[in-house]
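Check out one such.
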Amino acid sequence: VPILNSCALNCSYCSVKAVKGDLLSYPVNDIVKEINCSLDDGCKEIWVTSQDNAAYGMEKKENKLPELLNEIIKIKKDFLVRIGMMNPCNVLLILDELVEIYKDKKIFKFLHIPVQSGNDKILKLMNRKYTVEQFKEIIKKFREAIPDITISTDIICGFPTETEEQFNDSLNLIKEIKPDVLNISRFMAR
């Protein structure tokens, strides 16, 4: 079930914002209605999807993701919710609330949070709006609260100007956080 269109970020390597325009979050009632229809049709898993679920409602300064998820888990039916990818800078804004929601029995214990680089200079060139330490803090908070959580992250290799040392920072970060799933992409100019 898609919850928004486009992205709140403007990463230097990504064309989503240029192609899709400004962020547009769908109304809570429409999302809940779609979920109820899917559940009535026999679905047992609901996958909440978008370019960045943590950006939900940011263009309106309301209905942020925790509020939406709380409405979804109130639905009195037997189902599980898998929350799709979320960018770290937007997770930081709702971190404590999000960790609490993830404890709910209806939420899959799966967190997809792309770091993209383990080096702050490269993250800045990517226009990612967070630091490596902030990313590690997110992982730490989720793992402390939910020890069996599955962590998935993404790395972009070969970003323009990335040195071998900066690449090694990414390798060291991966060795440190030990994600369960690692998606590796090679930078390609568009």
Remarks:
- The two ends are 29 Å apart (CA to CA).
- The beta strands are 4-5, 24-25, 45-48, 80-83, 110-112, 150-157, 181-186.
- Residues 118 and 169 are 5 Å apart (CA to CA).
- The chain has a mean pLDDT of 95.
